[in-house]
Amino acid sequence: MSKARLLAFAGKVGPAALVALAVVLRSNLNYRTAFVDEAINMFGGWQVLNGLRTYAMTFHMGWYLLSFLPLGLAGWLRGLEYARAVNAVWGVLTVWVVFLTARRAYGKSAGCIAGGVFAVFAPAIVISTFATYDSLSMLLTAVAIYCWVRGLSDGGDSLFLLGGLAMTAAVLAKYAAVVVAAVCLAYGLLLAVVQSRVSIRKDAARDVSIQLPGRCLKRLVLSGLPFMLLLIYAFAYRTELGQLWQGQVLTKESGDPNVRWAILKLLSEYLWLPVLLALPTLLWREKRAVSFGFWLVGSGVLMYHLLNKDQTTLYKHTCYMLVGLAPLAGGGLTVLGRWVQGRVRRVDAAMVTAVAGVVAIAYMGAVGQSMLPGLRSYWSDTSEVMQYMRSRVNDGDTLLMEGGAVGEYYLIARGTPGHIPARVLDTWWYVDEQGSGIEAYRRAIVEGRFDWIVFDYVFTGGLDRELAQTMQGRYELQASFPARVYGQYGTIDIFKALK
Fold first, then answer.
1. What does the pLDDT read at residue 195?
2. 73, 231, 269, 460: which has the fewest C-beta neighbours closer than 10 Å?
C-alpha cells in the first residue's frame, strides 16, 4: 500500500477508532456503588420529580433542571448504571466535539490526536462514568468553543449565537464553567479591539473614536447576547447564589500556606504532557489567533484555583482546561511534524505527527488507567452495607450515617416497600430545636431519635468515636463491613437502637 493510500485509510479509520476507544474506556459503569456526590444528584432529582422540595434546588453548583433532573430520572427509573450511562454518552460526544474542533483549527491529524488525548485522560473518564453534572457541562463547553472556532474559519455568524447559547447552558449545568465563559468573552472582546480602527481628531479636544467593523461587532453581540440570561438568572437567585458562594466556594479555601504550590504540582501530574505537546503552536503564525484562544481556555481555570486556593475540585476542572489544551496538543504535533520534514527531507510530516500522536496517547492512556482506582475511591464503597440495610430498616425509621445521601438514594428513592425509612440524616450536619454541634447529636442519641447509626470513620471519625461513648447501653453493634478509601481499608459499623 502506498503512503498516500495508507494516510487516506488512516484518515477514514482514525475517527471511528477514536470513538471506539472513547466508548471502551467509558464502558465500565458498575465499578462500585454510588459516590456521595452521585447520590445527592440522583436523590435530588427524585425529589424534584416527586414534587418535593430539596435544599439543593438552590444551594447547588448548577441549575437543577439541567444538573438534577436528567440524572434523577435515570437513577430512579433504571438505577445508578443507567445514570452513569447517560453521562458516558455525554463524554463520548465531548471527545467527538474536541476532535472536530482541533480538525477545524489545525487539520485532520490534529483532530485525531486531540480527540485521543481527551478520550484517555483519566479525569475525563471519571466524570463521564460518574453520575454528576460535570459531564454535561463539559460537553456544552466543548460545543460552544467548536461553534466559535468554526464561525471564525467559515464566517457563519449564526454559529456565534449558537456558541453563546451553548456556553450559557454549560454555566447553568455547572457554575464552574463561568470561568471559561468569562475567558472566552474577554478574548472575543480583545479580538474585536484588535480588528477595530482607531482615529484621533487633531483639535483642541483631541477626541478619540474607536470604530468596530460592522460584522465584527455583530459577531461580538451575537456571542454575548445569550449571557444576558445568566444576568437575569443571577439576579433572580442572588440570595441563594450568595449563600452558595459562602457555603460551597469560600469554605473550600485551604489554609495551607503552600496550597498554591500544591495546586501547581497536582496540575502538572495531570497536564504536563498536553502542555508540552502544545508548546510548538506558539510558533505557528497563521494560527496564532485561534491558538491564543485555546491557551486562555487552558489556563483560565488554573487562575481560579490559584486565587481561590482550592485543590479539592481541581481534577474535575482540568477537563475544562483540556478542552483548550487537547486541540493545542494536536496542533503542536502537527507543527513538530512539519519541522522534522523541513530538516529531514525523506521524512513525511504526516507520518511523524501520527507516530508521535499514537505514542503520546498510549502513554497518557496507561497513566490514566493507573490513576482511575485512586480517583474512584474517594468515597467508601457501600455495596455490602446497603444490601444489609435494605432488608432490615422499616418504614418510618430514622438513620444517622456518614454520607447520608447514599442512604437516601438506596433506601428511599430506590427502597423496597416495607423497608423505606422516613429520614436519613448525616453526621456532617445535624440540627435540632436547641441548636447544632456535638451536643445536638448527643441529645438525639439519649432520646433515641435514631433507629440506626452508621459510622464510616472517614471524614467524621473523631465525632463518631466521641458519640460511641454516649451510645453505650443505648445502641448495639449489628454488623461491620470493609470500607476502601484512597486505596486503604477501613470499617463501616452499623448500630441499632436498643428498644
1. 67
2. 231
Q: How far apart are CA 448 and CA 442, in angstroms?
A: 10
pTM reported for the whole predicted model: 0.89
Residue whose C-alpha is closest to residue 411's, from 398, 428, 429: 398
- Which backbone phi and psi does 474 adopt, to 5 degrees? -115, -30
Q: How far apart, in whole angstroms, are the C-alpha atoms of residue 165 and residue 155? A: 18
Give residue-wise pLDDT tens across range 75-96.
888 889 999 999 999 999 999 9
Grid cell for residue 94: 465531548
| Residue at which a domain ends, from 347, 375, 403 | 375
Last residue of a domain, one of 359, 375, 391: 375
Grid coordinates belonging to 345: 527531507
- Mean pLDDT of all residues belonging to the chain: 86
The number of distinct structural domains making up the chain is 2
What average pLDDT score do residues 133-153 get? 93
Q: Which residues lie below 8 Å from residue 324, measured CB to CB, with a gap of 6+?
A: 145, 293, 294, 295, 296, 297, 298
Q: Are strands 398-401 and 208-211 parallel, antiparallel or unpaired?
A: unpaired
Q: pLDDT value at position 206?
A: 46
- Residue 18 corresponds to which cell in the numbers above? 477514536
Per-residue DSSP letter, 130: S
Q: For residues 489 and 466, give the distance between their C-alpha atoms in angstroms, rounded to a whole number.
A: 22
State the residue range of the domain holding 411: 383-497
Cα 205 from Cα 290, distance rounded (Å): 38
Q: Are residues 350 and 426 in the same domain?
A: no
Please report, for the domain that includes residue 445, its CATH number.
Answer: 3.40.190
pLDDT in tens, 339-387: 887 777 777 778 888 889 999 999 999 999 999 988 888 788 888 999 9
Q: Do 203 and 60 belong to one domain?
A: yes
Strand, coil or helix: 211 = strand
- Whether residue 274 is predicted with pLDDT greater than 60 in this model: the reply is yes
Same domain? For 39 and 153 the reply is: yes
Sign of the alpha-carbon dihedral angle for 350, 100, 70, 56: positive
**Taking a C-beta distance cutoff of 8 angstroms, is the pair 331, 337 a contact?**
no
166 pLDDT above the threshold of 80: yes
Q: What's the whole-number mean pLDDT along residues 245-271?
A: 76
- Considering the domain architecture, whether residues 299 and 365 belong to the same structural domain is answered as yes
Rounded distance between C-alpha atoms, residue 365 and residue 461, angstroms: 36
> How far is CA 321 from each of CA 180, 443, 454, rounded to the nearest angstrom?
9, 48, 39
